[in-house]
Give the backbone structure.
Amino acid sequence: MQVYDPLDVEFLADPYPAFAWLRENEPVHHHPADDRAPGFWALSRFEHIWDAVRRPELFSSASGLTFFNDEIGQLGIPPTMVMLDPPVQTQLRSLIGRGFTPKRVTVLEDRIRTFVRARIAVMDRLAADGAPVDLHQQLSSTVPTYVLAELFGIPLGDQQRFAPWVHALTQLQNDGFTLDVEGSGGAALVAMAEMMEYFTAAITDRRTNLTDDLLGALVAAEVPGPDGEPQRLSDWDILGFCFVVVAGGSDTTASLISHSITLLSEAPDQRRLLLDDPGLINGALIEFLRLESSVQGLARTTTADVVVDGTTIPASEKVMMLYAAGNRDPREFGATADALDVRRAIPRHLSFSSGPHFCIGTHLARLQARVAVEELLAAHPWCTVDAAAGTRHQSAFVRGWLSLPVADIG
């Protein structure tokens, strides 16, 4: 029997056999407390997760998104949008959505494509010199860092400060927002303070000198309030959104890019389909995410006793929504749920969650990944990676890479 243990290194190396066992044997699983983490529940079937995340009145985000206690309190900041429930979350999301539009993101495509081509040129020079080439470090992880800096309107001279913030906050997220002040948690706190100070000053500037970037759009965004008067985002609302996008949107996008090439390295027949018809790439990204979900799972907290598949989960319990397990559920995706099929029709999936907390940055993540995969396959149609030689994050909540060596530049 494959054991589900989200803090075990062997489980994290390949969680999918354990997820399959849970789906078939304990779809509503109680994970006991130990010296590493408190006890919690876990849902692994697609339909159970799909239903739960769409019922925030029973499965709340307001107590944090991990199985650890008091993650919001440890951060020492007010709850961000992803840690709120409707109707407050709905109103805040509506305001943010006025500034963070697909149109605003789409205009970045040409700049993203130019940046990606430049990064591929760096890989080419390394390969020509006989030096090691790392897909994740030299391409995938650089794209979202660049794009977020451009999106927020960070001046070129300040962009070198942005990458360390992204790295530290990503590590904080991957650690489940638990703060080891002597280790990575201390660095994350410093990075968070620096980033908040920088963005606070930038927001203050935008309120008097409006600019055509995302910060400017968020400062200007307004919706009618309950009394008919316009409501705008507070400084903290904007800061919280910046925190969410940097911590939650950087490494997940980078991992999507790297996983795309990892999966294609193992399935040359599927790669051939994309080379013959690049128009399939956009849809294939969802298939890549389905098989290798960047976010493996996040928690909700029950607000009352809830019965799922005949099992009662008591009130005030943390419940992990195992998106990665649900995304391979044969009840939803058929007998080939574990296989890559770039032409698969996917009307529903859990890679961006669902319901009120459906990922607000979906359009941005897909744009970056599409451009990166398109350009890499155009330049190096048969580029492959050595996944066995790569290094992964050790995280209960996300699945991604720290390094991913190129086996053949193709």
